[in-house]
Every structure is written in structure tokens, then in C-alpha cells.
């Protein structure tokens, strides 16, 4: 089974509760996630992936739990990432993975319906996050 880390990056201003999401130029709306390296703890992987994909820095990461029900053949590990500010409403970040795609980031409200355009695994991941925060 493939092991992936998913950082739960909450906006510093807690009302409404918002997490990071982005528009991938080829694959639609997503949450940050990525593989866990050998010897790496899930919360370390979450902080690393968040920085690599979004440019956001994590001051502390706390492991929330895991689920093998998000995407077949993959175990998702979720970690709450305390962000370093300041934060913008929207931003772009060029990710070195997959040839250097430009990701367009925004915030998703956890207590509102998920905007259209997220594939089912990301919808299930947001549902998991909602149930565990």
C-alpha cells in the first residue's frame, strides 16, 4: 500500500475554518499531498510536502490520524500544520515536481459545501478532515 502525507493547513484566522487547496493545471482542484519517504514520520512529510507544493512554512505539525478509505491502494496520513504568517487570500507557487507546474492556491471553508472541481478522493479527504478537527 502506498503511504501519503496530507497536511491540514488551517488559516491562522480561525473563523471561518479554512484549509489550503489548489488548482493543478492538468488535474483540477486538489489538496496538498505526497509520498512519505523512507524513515520520515508522516508529520515531517506533511510539512515538507506543504512547503514544496505551496511555499508555506510549518511552525509545528501534529499527527491527526490515517485512513485507507480515501483512495484505493493508498493510506493517507493527516497532520495539522501550524503555519507561519503572513498569509494571502490567493497565491501561486511553482512546484518543482512533475516538471515545474504552477499551482494556484486558495482557501476552502471546512464548514461550507466543497466547491466543485475536486475529484472524489479529495472530497473524501475533506470529509475525513471535517470529522477529525
TrEMBL record:
Keyword Nuclease on entry: no
A UniProt-annotated Pfam family: NUDIX
Domain Nudix hydrolase: 1-130
Cofactor requirements of the protein: Mg(2+)
Keywords: Hydrolase
Domain of life: Bacteria
Full protein name: NUDIX domain-containing protein
Species of provenance: Roseobacter sinensis
